[in-house]
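Technical annex, item 7. During the second reporting period the consortium partners agreed on a shared format for inverse folding records so that results from different sites could be compared directly. Each record opens with the tokenized structure and is followed by the designed sequence. A conforming record, contributed by the partner at site C, is shown below for reference.
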């Protein structure tokens, strides 16, 4: 229960509060329109569909106001820095910013569906009102005049309700908003983001079109309420349509409510505009590429400098190369430590943009070119992640799958630097690295880092401070496996990695891993940091909760979000 409160509590406090506000706003708006005397005659025409449409519209206003806030990365990083002296749970809530962004987007989709469905019924019933013989027909026949007598926007009984919908500003902007939303959400799936990042990047910028349509959606004011209920009580006059036009049932007058969506969106849009201005200003700052290193398996390293650049371990930056694309910014984890005189990213050539960057940086030419031959780069960031809190625990466990191990390069360098610096007292008692890798050849640069750390630990006589386990899940056949076994027994170092700690073959038995951690670190706080696939993240999250107790080991789960 203790670990559940620490791991789940911060997120669900935020999500629970947000859900309660949504439910309260929806229900409150629903009954406001159901009971408001000014909308009595409009309810006579369309029924409760009006209430459903307006309630969902109120929630859309709220969520469209919130959806931009979690992606104001500079704002989040500033708040996170300001909360550095605050309780850890406050910072943990900020680490879920992309999760909140997704939840809000899904809520926008739900209320958009409700809003569209309700207005579809609205227009169907407005059309049917022309063929009735009760008060609905009388309301429909009210003349269109400058003083706003009419309430039914469909003025002809022979028109098609769908066509009438597309004649209105609300109808056209509604279609634009919905199409933009579908493209944004559908292109944000994990598969598309990882395999077709450019598609995700460009379609996500349809949010500009979405917000333009959102702001002008209600400009035509077709939802109209009665303004003269003091001289025409609709509850009394509804059954006396033959006496309309004379006291006490003078003709009802109607007026459309002004659009309010802009007021909801204005604040966050200003904040996001400031965010982009900051990015633009940073793009003007000179970035010098001091070194380009070509690593095996199509990985290259960029060492760079920028005046005033300071970063903490585990942070990431957005990289922009104008000669490749004027618009694209790609996130990369920093692999350098704060004590180094440069900052570094390792980039794997897996797409058009990374290939173009490698070509522009002349990676394949072997020797480093003069700085003036390098492409102009812009850096936005650095931005904070949950990995920044790795010093807040007695024991830190770093778990990465495949390229997900990249964020831990800077962390391991920084931890070892602090461990060697006698002027700083390192709170960490032990560091574990678990690396699940399908093919070691793809990440030999990280293997070289581990080998360097092992050598330094051996020289200082402290070989157990960092304990790492490398799990190789594939990349060998039966004959290779036999050779590995023979060499493994005869050699002090691992035959695959060359490291002193031997490679494990297959996938980890995570229950056993956590049981060992529980036994070895009883009564201690263990911070588990993961970067990788979502399915394993769920498993590790559950194991942290399952193996924690108030009297024994307490596991705190942290996942990287970009």
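Designed sequence (site C submission):
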């Amino acid at each position: 229960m203790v670990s559940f409160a620490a791991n789940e509590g911060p997120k669900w406090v935020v999500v629970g509060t947000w859900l309660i506000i949504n439910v309260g706003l929806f229900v409150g708006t629903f009954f406001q329109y159901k009971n408001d005397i000014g909308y009595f005659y409009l309810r006579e025409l369309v029924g409760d569909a009006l209430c459903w449409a307006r309630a969902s519209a109120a929630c859309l206003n709220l969520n469209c106001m919130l959806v931009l806030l979690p992606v104001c990365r500079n704002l989040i990083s500033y708040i996170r820095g300001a909360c550095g002296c605050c309780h850890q749970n406050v910072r943990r809530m900020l680490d879920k910013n992309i999760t909140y962004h997704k939840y809000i987007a899904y809520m926008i989709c739900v209320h958009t569906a409700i809003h569209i469905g309700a207005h579809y019924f609205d227009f169907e019933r407005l059309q049917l009102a022309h063929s009735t013989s009760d008060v609905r027909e009388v309301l429909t026949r009210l003349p269109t005049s400058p003083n706003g007598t009419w309430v039914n926007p469909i003025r002809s009984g022979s028109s098609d309700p769908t066509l009438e919908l597309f004649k209105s500003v609300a109808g056209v902007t509604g279609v634009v908003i919905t199409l933009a939303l579908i493209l944004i959400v559908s292109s944000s799936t994990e598969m598309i983001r990882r395999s077709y990042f450019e598609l995700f990047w460009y379609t996500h910028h349809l949010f500009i079109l979405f917000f333009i349509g959102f702001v002008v959606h209600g400009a035509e004011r077709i939802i109209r309420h009665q303004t003269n209920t003091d001289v025409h009580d609709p509850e009394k006059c509804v059954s006396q349509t033959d006496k309309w036009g004379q006291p006490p049932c003078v003709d009802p007058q109607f007026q459309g409510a002004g659009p309010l969506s802009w007021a909801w969106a204005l604040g966050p849009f200003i904040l996001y505009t400031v965010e982009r201005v900051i990015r633009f200003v940073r793009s003007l700052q000179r970035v010098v590429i001091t070194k380009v290193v070509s690593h095996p398996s199509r990985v290259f390293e960029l060492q760079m400098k920028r005046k005033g650049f300071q970063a903490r371990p585990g942070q990431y930056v957005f990289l922009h190369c104008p000669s490749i694309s004027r618009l694209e910014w790609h996130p990369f984890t920093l692999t350098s430590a704060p004590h180094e005189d440069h900052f570094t990213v390792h980039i794997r050539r897996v797409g058009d943009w990374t290939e173009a960057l490698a070509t522009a940086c002349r990676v394949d030419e072997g020797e480093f070119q003069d700085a003036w031959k390098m492409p102009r780069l812009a850096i936005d960031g650095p931005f904070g992640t949950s990995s920044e809190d790795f010093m807040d625990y007695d024991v830190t466990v770093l778990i990465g799958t495949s390229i997900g191990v990249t964020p831990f390069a800077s962390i391991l360098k920084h931890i070892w630097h602090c461990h060697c610096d006698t002027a700083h007292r390192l709170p960490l008692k032990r560091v574990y690295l678990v690396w699940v890798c399908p093919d070691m050849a793809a990440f030999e640069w990280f293997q070289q880092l581990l080998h360097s750390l092992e050598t330094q630990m051996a020289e200082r006589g402290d070989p157990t401070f960092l304990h790492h386990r490398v799990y190789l899940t594939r990349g060998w056949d039966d004959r290779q496996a036999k050779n590995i076994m023979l060499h493994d027994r005869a050699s002090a170092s691992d035959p695959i990695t060359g490291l002193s700690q031997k490679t494990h073959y297959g996938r980890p038995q995570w229950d056993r891993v956590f049981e060992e951690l529980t036994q070895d670190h009883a009564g201690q706080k263990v911070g588990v940091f993961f970067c990788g696939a979502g399915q394993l993240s769920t498993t590790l999250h559950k194991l942290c909760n399952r193996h924690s107790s108030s009297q024994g080991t307490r596991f705190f789960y942290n996942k990287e979000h970009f």
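The chain has a mean pLDDT of 81. DSSP finds 21 helices and 14 strands in the chain. All partners now use this format for quarterly exchanges.
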